[in-house]
Amino acid sequence: MSAITAAPPKSGNALSRVIAASMVGTVIEWYDFFIFGSMAALLLGPVFFPSDNAALSTMAAMATFAVAFLVRPLGAVVLGHFGDKFGRRSTLVLALLLMGGSTLFVGLIPTYAQIGVAAPILLIVCRVVQGFALGGEYGGAVLMVVENSQARNRRGFFGAFLSAASPVGFLLATAVIALTTLTTTDEQMAAWGWRIPFLTSAIMVGIGLYIRIKLEESDAFKELQEKADTEAKSAQDVPFIAMLRSYPVQVLKSILVPMGVQAGYYMTTVFLLSFARDFGGFDVGQANSMVMIAALFFLLFIFVGGLWSDNAPRWVPMSVGLGGFAVAVFVMFPMVQSGNFVLATAAFVLGLAFVGLLYGPMSIYMAELFAGGVRYTGISFGYQTASAITGGLTPVFAVALLEQTGSHIPVAGYAAVMMGIAFAGLMLQRNRTNWDKA
Q1: What start-end ranges are recorded for coiled-coil regions in this protein (predicted)?
Q2: Which has the closest alpha carbon to 139: 422, 390, 365, 375?
């Protein structure tokens, strides 16, 4: 494969507009996704899966949350194909439309008490659409930023903005939930208040679509299109097949390394949130406040990790994040179980700080694994396959382990093993990059 020529550098203002437009849409999509995750941990169980056993009800809601993760690799392959073949921008617009529409519909679904088993079925369908859409979001948003940045020694920093979209979306989601809980009683929240955060997303999706439609295609993709116009393309030129054939080790790395992010993040923001309610004695408002505070530190450490990766090999801050979380997870549960608000909040901060160091360089790390012609597909498929393996299933496994053993130690052990697997992937060809290949 030949190298592509460098695109003319964008001005600072032009790059800022690309970052803002990419980040706004991604923030909204993560808001939609996290609204469901938080509601699944706190309220959706009794509404859609009523049971005399509260743990079973919560587990059913968590399983519904996990369904979207299972379909995300399919969304990655399909939307990644369109993104590599026809453009990053148009694919991102489609992803936002699908995500926003399914989230709005969740807010309109009748409850189990109103229509019976049809309610959880409709909920699951919405989750499938959400997962499919998010499968194509991350890779495209990353590429819109890093492919428009010509400063090689700043790509980690610029890529961190896309990683930062996750905690910003989470902060926005938890803020809306907190505001809703403050303005409604517990009875009102259980009856209809839970719908408000889902319905609110319609306004934000409209704003995001307006901004994203105005976004220009990335410079690197324009170059690939120009090259495609002058070269004959074979029938086998399918991004997914080309990716598997040309980059088998990179595909493995792109799955194993994000498994650490997924396991650590969802262990902290979903399972530990439920643990704080059930074993720490904290109410919904307190639990959300803890995560909101921790998300601010998450945001900070994402940029620390991104900047660090511009001044050292990418794997250095990522290794610190993996190793730190593997140790910290064993003390996070006792800290939450203490019932002390400050100590419990510190547990959330500790977990998300280490995940932030890992997640900050993740965008550029994934982009550098693959050449331009399969980059959208490669980033999306690897990241979303990791999501399917450890993301949505981590809270489900954690609930099951805690229910069966009555101890948090096996839960922490599971998280530590996931960090070890991610570290093994990180060490494979750790300094090799395919950024300049077409």
Answers
A1: none
A2: 375
Buried b vs exposed e over 74-88: b needs ≥16 C-beta within 10 Å? bbbbbbbbbbbbebb
| pTM across the whole model | 0.81
Residue range 197-252, pLDDT digits in tens? 888 888 878 887 887 787 777 666 777 666 655 444 444 478 889 899 889 999 99
